[in-house]
Amino acid sequence: MTQRKHNFTVVHNPKSLSFIVVLIEGPSYTGFLQNLACFRRVAMLNVPSQSFPAASSQQRVAPAGQSGRNKVALKPGHSLMDWIRVAKSGRDLTGLRGRLIDVTEEELQKHNTRHDCWTCIRGMVYNVSPYMDFHPGGEEELMKAAGIDGTDLFDQVHRWVNYESMLKECLVGRMAVKASTALKAKSVIKDTITHLNGQAPPPSPTFMLPPAFLIPPSPSSLQPSAAPPPPQPKDARPRYDWFQTDVTVNIVVFTKRKLPNSGCTIVDLQDGVLRVEVLLGKMSYMLRQRLAQEVDGSVAVHTACAVGKIQVSMRKAAKGKWEELGEPLEFHDSLFRMKDRAIFYRECMLVSKTEVTHDTWVFRLQLPLGTLMHVPVGKHIYLKALIHDSEVVKPYTPVEETLVPATLDSTQGTAATDIFLMIKVYPDGVLTPHLNNLNIGDHLSVSSPDGPFSLRLLREVTHLYLLAAGTGFTPMARVIRLALQDLGSLRKTKLMFFSRQERDILWHSELDGLAAEDERFQVEYILSEPCDGWTGRKGRVEASMLTDFLLRPEGSKVFVCVCGPSAFTELTVGLVRQHCFSEEEIHAFQG
């Protein structure tokens, strides 16, 4: 009788300090046992993990019922650039004179006041007291994490922020847990190894993750039962396969669901590593392999939306038969929740900059050879730049090259290779002056698409109402275009656009032209600082303005989108609710 060998994996839940030993049939576990040093990870809370990025949501106000980040007015001399100067001044921002220490939970809890405030983010402890007056969300928001593990609070609005760079001079040390926790984990492993060798019964599951993390036993390991087992749900997990010809190698992904017409597949081929990500609503399916042989830099993607099949094709650098596709890398053949996936960047080149107003430009960024990426309507990307030795990251929502194309297919040649960003340059900003100083041909780090907006929200909508302030217009631009071109149910799209002065109105002539050409579209401009000759409406958003704007005709299905500065968005969403619009009828983009 052949003795079956086993493998096992210890899964660590850093938030609850719990462990589970999962049995897996397969190769010997000797290699794993030789690397027990990996258990150093249990010495910290919320340790950064490549395989389990922190669960979080993006900085946004959507859905409307959830409050976004409230920015506060910072004192003069307390901008992000001012903070960067403070961090580089050589001041002791930790109070420890450069020492790094291990911080216990008890010690962390002692530092919970305005002038002595420590917090833990992903296992690292920071003294955030010096940063209080520089935080755009204000002192109150930071104090919510005083003396505790603030990872979840941070992730709710700041997942994309490089806090390690911003707070590196405030680093106190790493978070430590009691030694008994690590010893107990090792005890579980020891008992499990003994059980696998047939020397003892299995250990009781003292350390358990929530049921959602458990791997169900295989059918062959279950004892016979008089009653038939309950029917198992159909496996909805995507799968992939590959095939080749003499000149091409092709990967086929079977998503097992219908797909949108565009914007669901992102391909990056860099230095022989192929990364394919398929966006599936709230989930993300990823393939990541180091290819066995060389291919040309270009990649083609073909999607059969109705059957949910995606084919990624590459040309071989040399004709011949491949024995294998390549070497699977970390995250290969993995299914993530969108909010859990790591943010991936690629280097894009600035190819043009077109003036829109006196302080706003459209930046055209070209994706690198080997990358195919279309940003779905309503999604945003992140720009990342190194400024004064600090990484600065900001979200931006792409627009199209023009508000309305000359023909329906006029943008097909650029959709997969170019990204257009309408950006207002703030003289006292940090990132936008840097962007404005870039030369044609310079490069910039651009992330994959992110954000909660879904085209399902617009399904069967007959009346679409858009309220935008300033560059909060950018997500509306593509929503307008999609609504008028693709929504067969649409009867009316109305935009109420708030600006300071007439010269600040973005794509003013394009909007007027669209309203003249398509009777389903209507735009109204509201100026807070109009000139004497302005004949339109004046002021700021208020309830009375929306009474005649937010109409609900009999038999209609309505939807409202809001975007602008945080204060505008918070106020406007509240006013829309006062007009009896439900949470399901409102989406707020974060400006």
Overall description:
- The termini are far apart.
- The longest helix is centred in the first third of the chain and has 18 residues, at 179-196.
- A hairpin with a 2-residue loop joins strand 10 (265-270) and strand 11 (273-280).
- It is globular, with a radius of gyration of 27 Å.
- With 591 residues, the protein is an alpha+beta fold.
- The strands form six sheets. The protein has a seven-stranded antiparallel β-sheet with strand order 21-20-24-17-18-23-22. Strands 10, 11, 12, 15, 16 and 19 form a six-stranded antiparallel β-sheet that branches. Strands 28-27-26-25-29-30 form a six-stranded parallel β-sheet, with helices on both faces.
- Mean pLDDT is 80; it is low at 1-69, 200-227 and 408-415.
